[in-house]
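Recap from last week: sequence in, structure out.
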Amino acid sequence: EMGLPLDAAGVVVTDVGAVGRRVGLRVGDILQFIDGREITTTTDAAEALLEARRGTTVRTLRGARRIALRF
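Predicted structure tokens:
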């Protein structure tokens, strides 16, 4: 449905919020790593984002493209 590779893993973004929008996240992006920490559950994502600060790197999958965003 989203045109993702069959082996795509991570957490799908359903609401980017104000900060996510500023750094370039989009609905449908798949969060895979935050500061090198693998994201496999929404709890992983929430915990990693609570610890995020300036310079945090978020690696996402957008369609078939891998993207790195920096806070």
